Amino acid sequence: MDIIQELNADHAAIRAIILELRSDSTSPEVRADKLQKLGSWLRAHGDGEDRTIDAAAKTLGGELRTLGREDDEEHDAINRLHAKLARTTNPQFRQARLRLLCELLSHHLKEEEEEFFPLLKRSLGPAEREKLGVRYRELTREIDRLRPEVAGSVLGWLTGRPDPNA
Predict the structure, then answer these.
(1) Which CATH number fits the domain that encloses residue 102?
(2) What is the rounded distance in angstroms from the CA atom of residue 113 to the CA atom of residue 65?
(3) 26, 67, 73, 116: which sits with the fewest CB atoms below 10 Å from its CB?
(4) For the residues 146-164, what does the mean pLDDT come to?
(5) In whole numbers, what is the pLDDT of the chain averaged over residues?
(6) 125 Rama class: left (phi>0) / alpha (psi -120 to 50) / beta
(7) Cα(8)–Cα(112) distance, integer angstroms
(8) Is residue 164 one of the residues assigned to a domain?
(9) Which residues contact residue 8 at a Cβ distance below 8 angstroms, ignoring those fewer than 6 apart?
(10) How far apart are CA 13 and CA 19, in angstroms?
(11) pLDDT of residue 139
């Protein structure tokens, strides 16, 4: 898969986790587990993006350079908020931070898919996108163990049926 396909697949998985975190029917234990998994996913995904598409964008210059830098900053903000949320014990603050994290992530994914990826696709040829996809996959091996588990969540999200792994 090329880099954009890889990232879109990961974005679908992240959206599935967000839906579970937002759901009122998700138990506190499951929510804590999903939040921990989201942290692992975000670190690997963000690092993979930073070292592939953001790096490529910076060398291409122009609007892509600006979007790449923005992307780096958003990853840092998301990771800081996730870490703060993980340390939060007050239920009201925890809920507010969880809601904010989900909103920030949703906005970030949408912005990448609607602005960054189309411009990147126009700026990089198929071979370069494929090469970046391979590199991204190498960098995100850490989340490979989570992919099958989250795939069930993605399937549930896409079909409207509950996660068979839950």
Answers:
(1) 1.20.120.520
(2) 16
(3) 73
(4) 47
(5) 85
(6) beta
(7) 10
(8) no
(9) 113, 117
(10) 10
(11) 87
Q: What is the mean pLDDT of residues 18-26?
A: 90
Select the more confidently predicted residue: 158 or 16.
16
**52: amino acid identity, one letter:** T
Exposure string (b/e) for 7-30, b if CB count within 10 Å is 16 or more? beebbbbbbbbbbbbeeeebeeee
Q: Whole-model pTM?
A: 0.81
Q: Containing domain of residue 120, as a range?
A: 3-159
For residue 150, name the pLDDT band (cuts at 50, 70, 90): low
> What is the number of domains present in the chain?
1
| Residue 165 domain-assigned (yes or no) | no
DSSP one-letter string for 115-153: IIHHHHHHHS-HHHHHHHHHHHHHHTGGGTTTHHHHHHH
